[in-house]
């Protein structure tokens, strides 16, 4: 079976039907990674370890876990026992952890085969992926430009078929920014939605794990798998609006000898829906703090999404959202979060200038300033949820600018200007993390041979199912997209 163009769900079905084995799948994707090494998607490749793991899976069990035999990779912020984990930093070049992080263990328990580490910026601190510790992540549509961040390596791997999908992380847009930059789907779940990497582990609750995938259905399947990775009762978000179907029933056209799990989010993505109330806004919380002017391509994608949803039968209207004080609270929280990085004050010469600046700024900060910012964030969260409450979903642009040349963010700039440029590039993403809301970025139509733009769909708290439905409708209206590997 040719795995070159198979979706995640298609691969799962092929593995269940015996049309491909885990070893064949792992070998195919490892070879694809080697063919595209110049894009810098991977910080490390563990070929022999992956093939050993794939071989150990043997024949498919009667009730296989949802990712049985599927090749995946860790973002290089996730510790995996026995595998170098560098966090994108020269300070950790020789670090090999003795134990795996809970996210790595959970993804293994889902039956996947780990192929290595995808590239990330140092400690995942930036919205671009150009670590001094290794090669930059290059956009496959134009390798002179970057792939966004901090999950830039993962997004490239999915866009070019080096992985069928990826589990990444998002603390200010780190899934959605690179996904939109390279033209794939990126989903950030609600805070607390997942049993691991759920946004509840650290003050501020910004970062959560989530899927990067080529299709909305693939993202939904991977989200279902992550939500069910350990026994878990979600007490921090609203319940799913859809009843959970039987977990191991065949799914119509992709059914086969092995039962394919039908779970809530995949079922929701396939369910027709009409007459929703859709909010739309071009407002960003960075307006007035830096230049948030939209590229015409970004505005065109946004306008297309609004017209398309209206044509389907949804009622679209402007969201009356007037955020205030956001720049101060977010920049304070971002600096405070860097204070706890495992770098001693006498080791700051080992990290990049931007990282060193964030650490110094965070460690100078007093408790009153930090706690004040967290309090302001809680107020911002409440006000944003209230403003968006009348709507089933809210639409914004995904990015404000087209992909920028490698070095644009950091070249000849001081750290504050670097941060401002990140906000200029993606001014619509970080507030979703502060608010704890779910969001997904979906590509819009593109001229043949050109990179697609994307829009962002924001759901209510716990509203991933409705969000996925709207995303699937936009994807269907858009039609197929070329893959960057076919036009390079």
Describe the structure.
It is globular, with a radius of gyration of 21 Å. The protein is of the alpha/beta class and 488 residues long. Helix content is 35%, strand content 11%. The chain contains 15 helices and 11 strands. Strands 4-6-5-10-11-9-7-8 form an 8-stranded mixed beta sheet, with helices on both faces. Strands 1-3-2 form a 3-stranded mixed beta sheet.
Q: Summarize the main sheet.
A: 8 strands, mixed
Count the E strands: 11
Order of helices and strands: HHEHEHEHEHEEHHEHEHHHEHHEEH
Low-confidence regions: 231-261
Structural class, by secondary structure, is alpha/beta
- Binned, the helix content reads 25-40%
Spatial shape: globular
- Order of strands in the sheet with most strands: 4-6-5-10-11-9-7-8
Could you tell me the radius of gyration in angstroms?
21 Å
**Quaternary class:** single chain
Mean pLDDT: 92
Key structural traits:
alpha/beta, 488 residues, single chain
Walk me through the topology.
Layout: H1 8-17, H2 22-35, E1 42-45, H3 47-56, E2 71-75, H4 102-109, E3 113-118, H5 152-159, E4 165-170, H6 176-182, E5 185-188, E6 208-213, H7 216-227, H8 264-269, E7 277-280, H9 296-312, E8 315-318, H10 326-338, H11 353-364, H12 367-388, E9 393-397, H13 415-425, H14 430-435, E10 439-443, E11 454-459, H15 464-478
Parallel strand pairs: 2-3, 7-8, 7-9
Antiparallel strand pairs: 1-3, 4-6, 5-6, 5-10, 9-11, 10-11
Helix pairs in contact: 2-3, 5-6, 9-15, 10-11, 10-12
Short summary:
The protein is of the alpha/beta class and 488 residues long.
